[in-house]
Every structure is written in structure tokens, then in C-alpha cells.
Write a structure and sequence with these properties.
heterodimer, A: 362 residues, Rossmann fold, 2 domains, 6-stranded mixed β-sheet, 23% helix, B: MetI-like fold, two-stranded parallel ribbon, 71% helix
Chain lengths: 362, 580
């Protein structure tokens, strides 16, 4: 089945949503490009599923605009929106065969029977389940059910595809395979897709761009790499990977910028701003030296975890604990517990977030 | 497997139980199983088999024949009775569903503030056995009842209670909460995503209902409906009290009681009743098998609900109040009858008095005493048997133990009137030693009948209670040195006690108002329990007041029992989850 629609982008403008008196989504603004695989990432309760469902038309009426292509969906009931949604539980109707499940949307559109059969078979072939057409959902595995749910949605040629935590009900071993299949299917169809997840690895590996949400507010939008390398606040920094946070004051000392920690150490940092704030350091951007005098920052190794490709050290330094990852090659020696080491920071990789950038809040 | 006398590698222990000494090759539980099986066989399987057998027996020659069935279908009265029973049962289900459907729809589709009111609607009809309210309904809705007397001013007369209609109305008002609970549960089991995914693909309104909601709710509803069908089909008390004799159950009763236990027609009818019961139970089982449509998804199950507009709220409350009024009518009518002086051909009783209660208590001492003994003994025996069967089925590996469960549950398929006839036929020639009477005429046979009839429910309660007791609790006791019987006594039974107690109370409350089997087995008025007393009182217009008073007593007993059982279960659940 080739994509015969023009791909459509999605715009969300100034969206606010409340359940009764509780504000659940505040001031959401997003532009999703046509053909993009876009992720909503956030912890439980962040509002990501609520946002997805609002685009599909479920839940309370939001204020603000939702545009798919140039169609404004606000006020339209779910059955008139033509946005395809795959539910977390797949929601296959147990009293209908796979074929009837997949044909459902086409029957609603009153398409003639022969054409329905052709389309259903094309969709099932696309997900590799043509031989299962007469089975009942209870006879399928989780992964197969998900593919049927996908086929059921894409067969109706929706403008966009919405996936609500599609991988969380699958076994861990299946998830990696399924996310690659989802991505390649999406590329093949060219369908603008929104994918909701709480797992940053899933989002990082599949999304073109993503929006990180916390407590109903969009924290940052960007590609996985840009969010990881240049987080705009502490929440995003911590959510997308392990982050060491060092708080202090950034001052100008004889023309060079230095971060002064509460315990007195000074770190040379490249940054344009000044003032109090936090330094975000990724574990892999710090190196440890046995020669502690070489560095301004000294600490003691308290824990050590051998992870194969890396060794992870927990170092007590400046009244706080820092995670440091050293890559490991065959027979490379590992540092001892209790050893005093010097920390060398790659100052170009560190991100300084000024005081007001802890997190975006209402 | 229960041998405590030798454990591999150890010296034989001295702790040999009593049963070990007498029957060294069988354990205590195996003996109990055999005893229970014999009991169930003797008091359930055998009498019913006998009834079925006699249906095929020529009364004169003793040879096997189909002539009795031929005679049955040749008679227009019997053909009519057959059709009527079918018709009444089906219509009762339909009417009960008509009452239940709007309420189920309102509670599952909308956020309705009167939802608690609807739940109480579900409880009220169940506490009054249908035959108790029947006479009172007659006075309210009958040809010369309150309603029609008022409508006579407009020249209208609605045949609410004419003939079969009366039975249908009484039964549907009584059984509608069962259908309501059933329908609500079926709708609640439908995951919200079933509905939303259909909406996402373009369906809504009636199409959505037809393609998704109805097919998913139907099996659960039909399973419940077929159980109601069979309960109405088998009921003897209500048609009897309404003087509707052209139905199968009353015909069986009349043939046996007036012509005698050798009359083959009674047995033919019994066979038909049992056959239909078995068929309905089997159909109900088939409908539910493999159709466990309940799914779990975050956010809970059930269809999505929307708020009601003011106008819709008014309509909803109107419907609820109208049905509430209908549901309360037997209770109101019974109250009026019990507290009234003379009530006939007038919308309300002529006056009010406590005199009926005086008469009732004066004449009913024996009825009340008998009921307490019969129902108490039956309930007590029920929980002993039920606990034993539950333990044997769930905790032992005795061969064929499932058959104990099947036999006990088979009592559901046996109508009370058939059990009564079976006992009469089987035990009439069996003289009880010492007492010197045939077993069929001894009051104990009534206790046995009540016990057998209530056993399936007690068994379900005990099995549920035992399933809540984790096996590891017993294993811990045995690990610390307790024998099997000590473990049962000190660990299992105490932990089951809430469920057992609730089972006892429910058995008692429902046995206290059983009529179908009782009416066949009562041999003299001094042996009669409450339900039979009500039947006797209601035979004459002057006795109806006292009969209603006795009916109120019956209702109070059932209501108190039901609430007590619910309280025990709730308290049990609270302590269980509180300790976790």
C-alpha cells in the first residue's frame, strides 16, 4: 500500500485542558511537520496521553486550536476527525475476526465490499499477518494484536497516526524489534505520526523530534540529540539521560569564566551568562585521573559498576556524588574503590543553566 | 496421601486418627467424600432419577412405555399448561428486561446523581418471595383492585392481573433486579477503549451500539436471562396463590396431591420441568464459555459517561421513580393488607388495625417455631456439607472429587416441586425406625429438601471463602507440626468463617420462605413452616390479613438475613484488606 495522501502536519496552538477544576494541560504549542515521527515523552501524569487523546477528540473539550493540515479539529467529535489512533490495549473487538476488525473503519465509510476486501488484505500484508485474517483476537499474541490494531488504523488512510504507548504492553525482548518495525512502517507510508511514551530510550531511538512534558507543560521541543546535548532546563537534562548537577555561581575571574562551587572549588567553564545556576555534566564527558593534583576537582571513588562497554564510578566530590562513565577496552585496568582521583571536565560539553531555568512551570 | 502413620524413612508415628483405626486404607477426607457422595446420591440423584423413571412406566403393567407422554400431549389442558409455562417465563424475562434496560442504560452511559437510588431498587424486590406479594398485588392491580377502581371513573380497566398476566407481573417485578445487575455488569465489563476505537474509526450512536456494545454485552445478559427463565418456569408458589392452575408446576402439584403419588401425569410434568431446567442451565453455561470479554486498561473499564442536561435529568429521575413505585407496590400492598381491616372492592382498606398481627401470632406459633427449626437445621447442615465439599474439591487430590461439586450444584436444575414428588415416591415406603413413620411423612424430610435446594448457593459461598485462603497458610501450619485435621480446625475454618457465616445466614433466610418443595412434603398443619402458613391463610378472604402479617414477618426475616450476610462479608473484606 503506497501513500497516496499528501502528508499533513499537525499544529497545536495555545491548548489548555482541565478535568473539572484540575488543570491538566497548560499553554501547549507544537508544530509537527508533515511526515515526521514525533514523540511525546514524559513521566506518568505529565499529560502526554491526555494531549494525544485531545487530538483524537476524547476527553473534555480543550481551549485552543488543533489543526491537522489546514483543518481545525476543535469541536469535531472523534468520528469525524479522520485521525487514526492505536490504543495502548490495542482494543481489538473480541467478537470479530481479524478481518472484520480491520474492515471496521471501511464499513463505516460505506466503501463497497470488494474494495474493502482488497484494502484489508493489503493492510494485513503490510503488517505480515495476511494468513491470520480469519483468526479471533484471543488467538493472537500481544505483538500480533498490535499489528492488527495498526492495520485496522492505517487501512482507513487517516491524515495522521496517533500511537498511545504502543510498546509498553509488550515483553522487553519484543519492544526493540517492534519499535524498529514501527519506524520502518512509518517511513514507508510517510504518515505523520505521534508516539507517546514514558521511556526515553524508545523516544531517543525512533523520534525525529520530540516534546518533553512534565505536569501538563511542554518543557522543550527538539530532536533527541539537541535535547540531550542542550537541555534548556534541569527537568529535561535529568529525564533524557543520567546528568550530574553541580550548583554554584558563575563569575568572571580575570577574563575567564569560572564556576564557584559552595565547597570552594573552581571550574573553568565556557559560557556567556553569569550568575547562580547549575552545571549539567554527562557522565561520559568527565575523565578520571589517578594523578589527583592535575585537576582542581578531587574526589574519592565510593562505588564501581562494571557494565561491559563502560565502567561506571560514583565519586564523592564537593559534598556531592558524581557519576562518571569510563569506556572500557579489553584488559584496560579499572580504578580501585576508595581511590582518590582528579576529575577533568570537558568544559565545552557542560551546559550551564541559570537559576530561573530549573523547569518550565505555569 | 493422608497417611500420617508412616513417613518415608521414619518410624511409624503414634498419631493414628480414629478413622485410620477403623478404615486403615482410607483417609478421613476420603471417607468424608464417600459419605457426602452417598448423601447426595440418596437425597438428590435417586429421587429425581426415580421420578424420571416413573414417567416412562405404565402404571398398571409396570412396563416401560411412552404412553404417559402420549396422554400428556393428547390432553388440551396439559398442552395449554405447557405453552403457558413457556409463555409466562419468556414474558417475565422480557418484562423484567424492559424495566431493567432504561436503568442500566442510565447508569452506564451517564453520570447520574441518583445512581445509589437505582442500586437500592435492586435490593428491594429480592427480599420478598414472589408468592408473598402475589395476593397483595392482586388487591392493588386486579380487576377490582385499587388502580382499576380508580380508572373505572374513566371507563378503563387494564387487565394487569388477569390470569397469566398476574403471574408475569409479579415475577418480573421480583426478578428485574437480577436482570438489572446482570445487564449493568455486562456493560461495565466492556472496556472503554472498545467504544473509543470504534468512534475513532467513524462509528457512533446506534451503529456503535449495534456493532460493538450490544454483541459484547449480549452473552452476559442472555446467561442471566436464561437463569431467570428457569426460575419462573419452575415456580409453584406464585401461580398457586394467584389461582392460576393452567401451568405446569401447579398441575404437577394438583395431580399428585389430589389423585395420589401413582398418577403418571405428575411425573411426566416433572420430567419436562427437569429437562427444561437442565437445558437452560446448559445454554447459560455455553453462552458464557470462552466469552470472557472483560479486559483491563488503565483508567478503568466501562463505557465513557457524559453529564446529563437538566431536561435529561428530569426524564431520568422520572423513569427511576416510576420503576421505584412499581417495585415498591407489592411491599406497600402487603403492608396495607396486613394493617388493614377489610379490603375488598375498594381502593384502600376500610380501616386499619393491629388485629391481624394478633391473629397471626396467635395462630402461627407453630409455623414460626417450625420455620426456625427447619431453616436453621437446613442452613447448618448446608454449611457443614459445603465446607467439606469445598475443602475436598480445592485442597485434596481424591479421585472424582469434582463430581461432588457437580452433584451438589445439580440441585439447581431440580425444581422444588419435582424434588418433593421424588421424595414422596422414594421414601413413602421407607419406614423410619423408632419414629415408626414413613420418611416421607416425617418433618425431617422437609429439612433435607431445604438443605439440598440451598446447597448450591452455600457451596459457592464456601468455595469463594476457601479460595481466599492462601495454601501457604496451611503449609506453614503443617510445616510446624500440625496434622491435617488440626490445620483445618485451627487455620482454615477460622479464616473461612466470614464466608461460612454469610453462607449460613443466606441459606437460612432463603430456606425460611421456600414453598415449592415444602408444599409437597408437609403432611400435617402442625409440621408446617411459615411459607405454608401464608398459603393456608391466603385461602380465605378473612384470613388474608393474617396471611399478609405473616408475609411481612417473612420479608423481615429475609431482609434481616440478607443485610446481615452483606454486613459480615463487608466486614470480612475490610479486615482482610486492612491487615494487608
Amino acid at each position: 500500500m503506497t501513500n497516496t495522501n499528501k502528508s499533513t502536519g499537525i499544529s497545536v496552538r495555545d491548548l489548555h485542558l482541565s478535568f473539572g477544576n484540575t488543570k491538566v494541560l497548560t499553554g501547549v504549542n507544537l508544530e509537527i511537520k508533515a511526515g515526521e515521527f514525533f514523540a511525546f515523552l514524559g513521566p506518568s501524569g505529565s499529560g502526554k496521553s491526555t494531549l494525544l487523546r485531545a487530538i483524537a477528540g476524547f476527553g473534555p473539550q480543550p481551549q485552543g486550536q488543533i489543526l491537522v493540515g489546514d483543518r481545525n479539529l476543535a469541536g469535531l467529535p472523534p468520528w469525524e476527525r479522520n485521525v487514526g489512533m492505536v490504543f495502548q490495549s490495542y482494543a481489538l473487538w473480541p467478537h470479530m475476526s481479524v478481518r472484520k476488525n480491520v474492515a471496521f473503519g471501511l464499513v463505516e465509510k460505506k466503501i463497497q465490499a470488494k474494495l474493502i476486501d482488497d484494502k484489508v488484505e493489503a493492510a494485513l500484508s503490510l503488517v505480515g499477518l495476511l494468513d491470520y485474517a480469519e483468526r479471533m483476537p484471543s488467538q493472537l499474541s500481544g505483538g500480533q494484536q498490535q499489528r492488527v490494531a495498526l492495520a485496522r488504523t492505517i487501512v482507513t488512510e487517516p491524515d495522521v497516526l496517533l500511537l498511545d504507548e504502543p510498546l509498553s504492553n509488550l515483553d522487553a525482548s519484543l519492544r526493540v524489534q517492534m519499535r524498529r518495525e514501527l519506524l520502518s512502517l512509518q517511513r514507508k507510508l510517510g504518515l505523520t505520526t505521534i508516539f507517546v511514551t514514558h521511556d526515553q530510550e524508545e523516544a531517543n531511538t525512533t523520534a525525529d523530534r520530540m516534546a518533553v512534558l512534565d505536569q501538563g507543560i511542554v518543557q522543550q521541543i527538539g530532536s533527541p540529540q539537541s535535547l540531550y546535548d542542550h537541555p534548556e532546563n534541569l527537568f529535561v537534562a535529568g529525564f533524557l539521560g543520567t546528568a550530574n548537577i553541580l550548583s554554584g555561581e558563575l563569575v568572571d575571574v580575570k577574563g575567564a569564566k569560572k564556576l564557584i562551587l559552595p565547597t570552594g572549588e573552581q571550574l573553568a567553564i565556557e559560557n556567556s551568562a553569569l550568575g547562580t545556576g547549575s552545571l549539567v555534566l554527562r557522565p561520559q564527558n568527565i575523565s578520571l585521573s589517578k594523578n589527583a593534583e592535575m585537576s582542581g576537582l578531587r574526589g574519592k571513588i565510593t562505588h564501581r559498576e562494571f557494565l561491559g562497554a563502560q565502567v561506571r564510578y560514583l565519586v564523592d566530590v564537593a559534598n556531592t556524588q558524581i557519576v562518571v562513565d569510563q569506556s572500557h577496552a579489553v584488559d584496560q585496568p579499572i580504578l580501585e574503590l576508595g581511590a582518590t582521583v582528579g576529575l577533568v571536565i570537558n568544559s565545552r560539553s557542560a551546559v550551564f543553566l541559570a537559576e530561573r531555568q530549573k523547569a518550565n512551570a505555569a | 496421601m493422608e497417611q500420617q502413620s508412616t513417613i518415608a524413612g521414619q518410624k511409624p508415628s503414634n498419631k493414628r486418627s480414629f478413622t485410620d483405626r477403623i478404615f486403615p486404607s482410607l483417609s478421613g477426607t476420603a471417607l468424608a467424600a464417600i459419605f457426602i457422595a452417598t448423601l447426595l446420591f440418596g437425597f438428590l440423584i435417586l429421587p429425581v432419577a426415580k421420578v424420571i423413571y416413573v414417567a416412562f412406566l405404565d402404571p398398571n403393567s409396570g412396563a416401560l412405555t411412552l404412553q404417559n407422554f402420549g396422554d400428556f400431549f393428547a390432553s388440551s389442558l396439559f398442552r395449554e399448561s405447557f405453552f403457558n409455562s413457556f409463555y409466562v417465563s419468556a414474558m417475565s424475562v422480557v418484562l423484567a428486561s424492559v424495566f431493567a434496560l432504561p436503568l442500566a442504560y442510565i447508569t452506564s452511559r451517564f453520570e447520574f446523581s441518583g445512581a445509589a437510588l437505582i442500586q437500592s431498587l435492586g435490593f428491594i424486590p429480592l427480599i420478598m418471595p414472589p408468592f408473598v406479594g402475589a395476593i397483595a398485588m392482586q388487591l392493588l392491580f386486579g380487576r377490582n383492585g385499587s388502580f382499576n377502581l380508580m380508572l373505572a371513573n374513566y371507563g378503563i380497566n387494564i387487565p394487569f392481573m388477569e390470569g397469566l398476566n398476574g403471574v408475569i407481573l409479579v415475577q418480573s417485578v421480583h426478578y428485574f433486579p437480577f436482570i438489572l445487575i446482570n445487564l449493568s455488569a455486562s456493560l461495565r465489563n466492556i472496556d472503554r477503549s472498545m467504544e473509543e476505537s470504534a468512534q475513532n474509526l467513524g462509528a457512533h450512536g446506534l451503529r456503535l451500539f449495534r456493532r460493538v456494545v450490544f454483541p459484547l454485552a449480549a452473552p452476559g445478559y442472555l446467561a442471566g436471562a436464561s437463569l431467570v427463565f428457569i426460575k419462573v418456569f419452575d415456580d409453584l408458589g406464585t401461580p398457586l396463590l394467584l389461582n392460576v392452575n393452567n401451568m405446569l408446576a401447579p398441575q404437577a402439584y394438583l395431580r399428585i396431591s389430589s389423585i395420589g403419588i401413582s398418577d403418571p401425569m405428575g411425573y411426566v410434568i416433572s420430567f419436562i420441568l427437569v429437562a427444561f431446567s437442565v437445558f437452560s442451565l446448559w445454554a447459560s453455561f455455553l453462552l458464557m464459555r470462552g466469552k470472557d470479554y472483560a479486559t483491563t486498561q488503565k483508567g478503568g473499564g466501562g463505557l465513557s459517561r457524559r453529564k446529563l442536561s437538566t431536561r435529561e435529568n428530569v426524564v431520568a429521575y422520572g423513569i427511576v421513580i416510576a420503576i421505584l413505585a412499581l417495585v415498591l407496590s407489592p411491599h406497600i400492598a402487603l403492608g396495607l393488607l396486613a394493617f388493614g381491616t377489610i379490603w375488598s372492592y375498594s381502593p384502600l382498606p376500610d380501616g386499619y388495625t393491629l388485629g391481624n398481627f394478633n391473629t397471626m401470632f396467635g395462630q402461627s406459633g407453630a409455623y414460626i417455631k417450625n420455620t426456625l427449626i427447619y431453616a436453621g437445621a437446613a442452613a447448618f447442615l448446608d454449611i457443614i456439607l459445603a465446607t467439606a465439599i469445598a475443602y475436598i474439591v480445592l485442597r485434596t487430590k481424591i479421585v472424582g472429587r469434582q463430581w461432588l461439586d457437580y452433584m451438589a450444584t445439580a440441585a439447581l436444575a431440580v425444581p422444588g416441586v419435582v424434588l418433593g414428588i421424588g421424595y414422596l415416591r422414594t421414601f413413602n415406603d421407607f419406614d423410619v425406625p423408632i419414629i415408626g413413620k414413613p420418611l416421607a411423612s416425617w418433618w425431617v424430610i422437609i429439612v433435607v429438601a431445604l438443605m439440598i435446594r440451598r446447597l448450591p448457593y452455600a457451596l459457592r459461598a464456601c468455595m469463594a471463602a476457601l479460595q481466599q485462603v492462601s495454601l501457604s497458610l496451611e503449609e506453614a501450619a503443617e510445616n510446624l507440626g500440625a496434622t491435617r485435621s488440626r490445620t483445618i480446625r485451627k487455620v482454615v475454618i477460622p479464616l473461612m468463617s466470614g464466608g461460612i457465616l454469610a453462607g449460613f445466614v443466606t441459606s437460612f433466610a432463603t430456606a425460611a420462605v421456600e414453598l415449592s418443595a415444602t408444599i409437597m412434603l408437609v403432611s400435617s398443619n402442625s409440621d408446617a413452616p411459615l411459607a405454608y402458613g401464608i398459603y393456608l391463610f391466603m385461602q380465605t378472604p378473612s384470613g388474608r390479613g393474617a396471611g399478609a402479617a405473616l408475609g411481612i414477618l417473612a420479608v423481615v426475616i429475609v431482609a434481616a438475613g440478607t443485610m446481615l450476610a452483606q454486613f459480615i462479608i463487608d466486614r470480612e473484606r475490610k479486615t482482610r484488606t486492612g491487615d494487608q
